[in-house]
Amino acid sequence: LEKKRIAESNRRAKETSKNRDNRMEIDRVAHAIRRRKETSKTKGKRMEIDRVAHAICRSKETSKTKRKRIENDRLAHAIRRGKETIEERQERLHIIRQSRQNKKDAINKKTEDVAVGGIDDPGDKGRKVSKEVDWLDGFG
Length: 140
What we know:
The chain has helices at residues 2-14, 17-34, 40-57, 63-81, 86-116.
């Protein structure tokens, strides 16, 4: 019991106020569930926490949403710090978007080449599709 108490106090000592709030909220909800005293409000909160936890567990975050989130975090941080004017931000975003578009265009060009049959794809595993397929073949 003593060890448990010490471990608990150590854990609490490392906590930031934000983490503490989150933990308290989770503890409150967990306690309410244990006591079967769940109100619609705590249920909503618990569902939200579960949903977030589940999404994180399942890594439901796509690379696109992750990029957006990271970009937003970076922006928020820069703005909080006051290191970036609105013009600088617009320019930076424009550059980022442009480079992304260039990357997409390059990928699309590559896939077009493969579709035409210009590049031998090593991942093809020998499944060759003839370019001309008679779709009516076998329909009488």
